[in-house]
């Protein structure tokens, strides 16, 4: 448990701990904004059953990653050695935000656990950019879009089908009484042949508008509550419940399917703020279960107070002006 006032570095500590997962801030901050004021860059090293180090030079905007003493030729070769999940109040955007937020959630998770997903997603995004301004070779870019897009959509759908029931179980465990559902919403273009045909049909219109109107970049991870769209009809408490359930499913996915032997680190970034006592206690019990299985837990809190037993039992560190003391 890391205790300290707001603005003294608690979240920065968690950012450093998990930077080696996909080599970017879990908050979405740019690398240059992670550099301590007045410094020329940063260096982070994390040790699990393996060692990952990353260095960033703010003057050249260059980043170097080293895994077990060897320089990684591509970031894709190094992601996933460090694995962790962050629960924070800002997660409510998973329930209230647009489809892009939830697609991003799936893409980061699947990049860590599905072989070839990073490459397929990269190919898809490259083809997407080129098709919008393609000339005579538009059909070639569409073929790549269809092939890589079908791989991306299939991995997303398979993950949702496997973990949807578990999402509902977590929602009930946290305190939701209505039926909670997770489903992958696609515009009927999942298969390669089907997507290729849809791209051909929309070609003239898309090229005129300069954007591609069909494909997995338009799909969504739908959250339903009692058969209705949670984003529209849910309450603030129900949004928080759904977001926490998604993060817990993320942790279980990493534990079940991720490469390597280390269980994911669980980071609670002021996660109990804005929760009522009942939801706070239930989340604490779920955290306890993950900790008992071997997950390392870091919890940040602004002050000592009434925390669930799972947090109160953690060794206590204090942080002030970026300095940590046991």
Question: In percent, how helical is the residue content?
Answer: 40-55%
Computed CA radius of gyration, to the nearest angstrom: 21 Å
- In angstroms, what separates the terminal alpha carbons? 10 Å
Mean pLDDT comes to 90
Assembly category: single chain
Write the element-wise H/E pattern from the N-terminal end onward: EHEEEEEHHHHEHEEHHEHEHEE
Number of strands: 13
* % residues in beta strands: 15-25%
Describe the structure.
- The chain is α/β, with parallel strands linked by helices and 326 residues long.
- The chain has ten helices and 13 strands.
- The strands form three sheets. Strands 6-10-11-1-12-13 form a six-stranded mixed beta sheet, with helices on both faces.
- Strand 10 (265-269), helix 9 (277-292) and strand 11 (297-301) form a beta-alpha-beta unit.
- Helix 4 packs across helix 5, helix 5 (138-174) packs across helix 6 (192-209) and helix 5 (138-174) packs across helix 8.
- It is globular and about 65 Å long.
């Amino acid at each position: 448990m890391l205790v300290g006032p707001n603005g003294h570095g608690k979240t920065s500590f968690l950012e450093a701990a998990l930077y080696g997962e996909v080599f970017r801030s879990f908050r979405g901050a740019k690398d240059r904004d992670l550099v301590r004021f007045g410094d020329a860059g940063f260096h982070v090293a994390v040790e699990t059953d393996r060692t990952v180090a990353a260095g960033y030079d703010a003057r050249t905007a260059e980043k170097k990653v080293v895994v077990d003493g060897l320089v990684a030729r591509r970031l894709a070769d190094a992601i996933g050695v460090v694995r962790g999940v962050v629960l924070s109040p800002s997660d409510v955007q998973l329930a209230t935000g647009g489809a892009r937020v939830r697609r991003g959630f799936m893409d980061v998770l699947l990049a860590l656990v599905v072989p070839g997903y990073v490459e397929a997603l990269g190919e898809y995004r490259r083809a997407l950019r080129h098709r919008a301004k393609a000339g005579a070779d538009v059909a070639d870019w569409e073929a790549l879009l269809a092939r890589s897009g079908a791989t991306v959509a299939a991995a997303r759908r398979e993950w949702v089908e496997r973990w949807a029931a578990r999402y509902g179980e977590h929602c009930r465990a946290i305190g939701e009484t209505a039926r909670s559902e997770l489903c992958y919403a696609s515009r009927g273009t999942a298969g390669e042949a089907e997507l290729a045909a849809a791209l051909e049909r929309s070609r003239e219109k898309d090229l005129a508008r300069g954007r591609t109107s069909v494909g997995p970049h338009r799909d969504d991870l739908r959250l339903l509550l009692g058969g209705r769209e949670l984003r529209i009809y849910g309450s603030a408490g129900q949004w928080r419940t759904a977001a926490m359930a998604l993060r817990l499913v993320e942790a279980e996915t990493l534990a079940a399917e991720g490469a390597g032997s280390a269980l994911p680190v669980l980071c609670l970034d002021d996660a109990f703020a804005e929760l009522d006592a009942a939801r706070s206690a239930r989340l604490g019990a779920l955290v306890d279960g993950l900790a008992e299985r071997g997950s390392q837990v870091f919890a940040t809190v602004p002050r000592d107070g009434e925390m669930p037993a799972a947090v109160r039992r953690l060794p206590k560190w204090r942080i002030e002006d970026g300095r940590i003391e046991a």
